[in-house]
Structures are given as C-alpha cells and as structure tokens.
Amino acid sequence: MYHFFVTQDQIGPETITITGPDVNHMKNVLRMKPGEEILISNGVDKDYRCQVETLDSDAVTARILSVDEEGTELPGKIYLFQGLPKQEKMELIVQKAVELGVYQVIPVAMKRSVVKLDARKEETKIRRWNTIAESAAKQSKRIVIPEVTGVMSVKEALAYAADFDLKLLPYENARGMAATKEQVEAVRPGMDIAVFIGPEGGFEETEVEEARAAGFYPVSLGKRILRTETAGLTMLSILMYQMETAK
Question: How far apart are alpha carbons 173 and 99 in whole angstroms?
Fold first, then answer.
C-alpha cells in the first residue's frame, strides 16, 4: 500500500486532499486509479487508510476508511547527533536511522570531520537529506517525517541536548559492556535520548571531555572498532529494541 503525508488542513471529516508533487507521482508514475487503497499520515499522530476517489490535475481526493492512532512510532524520541561524514555515508545514515525510528538527525561539524560545508552547500545537502528522510518514512510506514536539521557545532549540539533524559556517546576508548548494559536498561518509554556519534576520524579527546561535562555518558559497543555509519545504527537498534520491550 502506497504511503503519503499531508498536513492537518488537508484532512476533512470524510475525505483527505493530496496536493503538490505527490499528485504527479500518483497519476503519472504510479498510474493510480479511483478505488485503490492508500495510507495517509498527518505527520503527527494518526494514520488514515483511504480509498482514492478522484485524480485531478492539481489534487487527489481520497475517502477515509479507517483511522489508526496507535501508529508505528517508538514510545520515546531518539535524537542522532551525527559527526559529519562523507556525503554517501550521510545519506545512508539518514535513510537507515529513519527506518530504525529516529526522531531527528542533527549533523555536527567536528574537528575530525572530513567534510566542510559552506552555507550554499549546506542548504543543498540539508534539502537532499530531508528528501531521503521523507522517502524512508514513507517506505517504513512512519507517522512522522524525521527532520534533518542544519549543521551544528559541537557546542551548539551539546546545548541542544541539555535537557534530554539520557545522553549516550559510543566511544572506542570506553571499556566494558556492563556500563553500556546499565545505561540501556534504564531506557523507558517517553524518554528523550541523545546519541552522539563521531565522524570518520573519531572524536578529539577534548570533544569527549566537553560531552562528558554536558552529561553525556561514554559507552562501548563491543571490542571491535565500528565505522561512523555503523556505530549510530547499532546504537539506534539497541535503543529501539529496549524502548519497544521496556515496561
């Protein structure tokens, strides 16, 4: 079943109106016909199973068949602070993080980041990453489209995460899985969790110390050294499982 997103003002008592680029996609790419069933999300808290009624040049109208308020979102919010990697890696990270349930992705410019973005390049990249996030949200039947924010400095990122319930920093020099297990088992539904991941070259020691001072807890992901695109997704997978199963 194809999946689309709308804003609340497009949702009526009995029908939903889809506008914008999705109209052309539905008509000319998917070649949809009246009578086909689709899934529509309001981007906040509801899924609507609908049946296409009309396909006009600038709008598609769908009749609401049922409403699902339970949805597929995690019972908490995970924020991925990702040290800027090379372009193709960031695209992979955004796509898979959205599939795993991340609430927001925050690119962070760190001392060992290979990529340096000027204002023009940053705007283009952010637009591209958000397009990937939307596509991944549709594929994985998310109710919300996770946002990829503008690039932050380490100082800005630490301030942004100041009031979060749990702050984890997977770090190659952290030792022992017992402490990691203790932190993960503390995860409960409703928590806001920050995960801070270094770039290809890893964290500078001063960045780790700054994060510690801001309440981040360095944790180990095992004896092997994980690439930046693997470390964040590993941590997200662990947290996703804990959130879904914790009482």
Answer: 28
As a whole number of Å, the end-to-end CA separation of the chain is 32
Give the residue from 187, 171, 169 showing the smallest Cα distance to 222. Answer: 171
d(CA 129, CA 125): 6
Decide if 210 contacts 154 (C-beta within 8 A): yes
Its pTM stands at: 0.87
CA distances from 30 to 2, 25, 81, 180, 190 (A): 9, 6, 35, 46, 38
Q: Which two tokens stand for residue 240?
A: 């996703």
Bridge partners (DSSP) listed for residue 196: 81
> pLDDT-based confidence at 247, cuts 50/70/90?
low
Beta-strand relationship, 166-170 and 192-197: parallel
Asked whether the predicted pLDDT for residue 115 surpasses 90, the reply is: no
For the record, the structure tokens of 38 come out as 């689709």
The pLDDT score that the predictor gives to residue 201 is 85
Closest CA to 107 of 145, 153, 76: 153
3-class secondary structure, 22: helix
The helix (run of H) or strand (run of E) holding residue 53 is strand 47-55
Tabulate helix, strand, coil % of the chain (nearest 5).
Answer: 35, 25, 40
Residue 11 has pLDDT above 70, yes or no: yes
Tokens, residue 171: 């770090």
Q: What is the average pLDDT across 125-143? A: 94
